[in-house]
Amino acid sequence: MARLLILGAGIAGQTAALHASKRLSSKHEVVVVSPNSKWNWIPSNIWVGVGMMKPEQVTFELAPVYKKTGIYFHQARAVSIHPEGDLSTSNPFVTIEYTHESKKGETEKINYDYLINSTGPKLNFAATKGLGPELNSFSVCTYDHAAKTFSALNELIQRMKKGEKKTLLIGVGHGNCTCQGAAFEYIFNVEYLLRKNKVRDKANLVWLSNEKELGDFGIGGMHIKRGGYVTHSRIFTESLYTERGISWITQAHVKEVIDGEIFYETLDGAEHSIKSDFAMLLPPFSGVGLKSFNKQGEEITKDLFAANSFMLVDADYSKKNYSDWNPSDWPSLYQNPKYKNIFAAGIAFAPPHAISKPMQSPNGTPIFPTPPRTGMPSGVMARQIALNITDMMEGREDKPTRHASMAKMGAACIASAGANFFKGTAVSMTMYPIIPDFETYPDTGRQLKYTTGEIGLAGHWIKHFLHHAFIYKAKAKPFWKIIPE
Amino acid sequence: MNERKPYEQSYYPPVPTGFTKFMRTNLIYQFFRFLVINFKMLRMVRKH
Predict the structure, then answer these.
(1) Could you give phi then psi for residue A98, rounded to 5 degrees?
(2) Quick check: A280 and A170 in contact, CB under 8 A?
């Protein structure tokens, strides 16, 4: 008997758990550790943040699904990894601390033969003074945050209905944030909601981001063929912002958020501030802060994790200039180089570098997006990791054989720009590869045949369909496996 | 809502015509686009 231990039950963790349990014979175990009792389809938190959905519509209880699929579940947070065991045992284990009410605070050691770290990020609000739903800004990162954000937004709309004018600032709250796409979806859904409530003329909507230009999205933007031209996403994004009457501030690192005002530095080194009645600013991400110890109990966290607490895998982490970056820098197996039975999927793995070009202000402040690795890529890499591990557990292979590099992987993304079955729109994008490859595709870094984008009602239909399809899949309902990642 | 004024940020980007905006929510055209976008996405999925 061998045991696969999975830390985290988000998109990556759930994908890995379901594929592994489906493939493994009954003599093996799949164990999931997650601090949350519920699974959350995070992309739809945007719709919770504008009141289109309730938190119950984007979540479900994990325990019944795991019971049905024969997966062991511990509602707990992982505290430390002991890849060599300790003085009392040579079996590797993870120490967990229960978050479930019945055992809250109790700790336990869980042995493993293979480990997948898919904890997702720590929402690092503390990186910016005053940032976060506990302080002076809002967030849509979790369904709770999103519900609280809608409550404040709705209150603001009621005041606008009485004739008050308001400024709403939406974007990212630090110079090294990722997930600009989520903030993009939120600002356009807010804009749609304001129009629906007939208060659009009372609102000054402002976008605030660390991107060099609009349409970067942490992937350096992308070129698509349209209207007889090969055009960068910057042009399409600026067009959409202009069409919807949204002004934008880019190249910004938010330094402090106080009640009603945001202070930020721009790439030229200048200091600015802007007053706002409502600020939804996404936080930067870091790893969740797992520690690691060797057999003697000495800390070896640096063998498993980068300085930002994301897990080290088979990437090229050597310091390189932007001009020396290569698609082969990116990992394809997501396997820790020292402990070969440890893998990381989704946001939890440490990227070798950014995708957008790193930049800093004359004051030395880094202001550029960090790489996104959520959604479709997260699911694809988790599936491949699970297949590799199950092959090894069943004795079919003695090392991982399936690769899932983001440099050889495409992605499809639907960004909602207003949710309504007849009048809504969404931007539908596909790109290949995710990591630009300027050697193979010298002009744009991507294959134009597979890199496309358009806005329309069809995108909203697909977004809505995917919401139900992925929740169906995550619940492991009949034929879930035919729904792709 | 911000208005477009010469030499300001929103003066330079292209904006869609009324016809383009109409087609974005035209049910018949969007049904066709629904099929096309799904095809493009499935083609992408098959590359993995």
Answers:
(1) -70, 140
(2) yes
Judged by CB atoms closer than 8 Å, whether chains meet at A412 and B16 is answered as no
At A107 the three-state DSSP class reads strand
Taking only the tens place, the pLDDT of each residue in A25-55 is 999 999 999 999 999 999 999 999 999 999 9
Question: What is the rounded CA–CA span in Å between residue A228 and residue A144?
Answer: 45
Q: Answer whether residue B4 is part of any domain.
A: no
Residue B19, domain extent: 15-46
For residue A169, which phi and psi values (nearest 5 degrees)?
-110, 125
Question: Chains A and B: how many Cβ contacts under 8 Å?
Answer: 91
Query: Which alpha helices (H) appear in chain B, and where do they start and end?
Result: 18-24, 27-46
- Residues A477, A480, A481, CA angle at the centre, nearest 5°? 150
Classify residue B21: in a domain, yes or no.
Answer: yes
For A391-450, how does the pLDDT look when each residue is reduced to its tens digit (9 = 90+)?
Answer: 999 999 999 999 999 999 999 999 999 999 999 999 999 999 999 999 999 999 999 999
**Predicted ipTM of the assembly:** 0.94
- State how far the Cα of A257 lies from the Cα of B9, in Å rounded to an integer: 25
Contact B10 A247 (CB under 8 A): yes
Dihedral sign of CA atoms B26, B32, B36, B39 in order: positive
Q: What is the CATH number of domain A3-123+285-393?
A: 3.50.50.100
- Inside any domain, residue B2: no
Residue B33 located in a structural domain: yes
Number of domains in chain B: 1
Can you give the three-state secondary structure of A336-367, one letter per residue? CCCCCCEEECHHHECCCCCCCCCCECCCCCEC
Q: How much is the pTM?
A: 0.96
Of the candidates A53, A144, A145, the one whose C-alpha atom is nearest the C-alpha of residue A419 is A53
Q: Would you tell me which residues 183-222 of chain A have a C-beta closer than 8 angstroms to some C-beta of chain B?
A: 200-201, 203-204
pLDDT digits (tens, 9 = 90+) for A248-270: 999 999 999 999 999 999 999 99
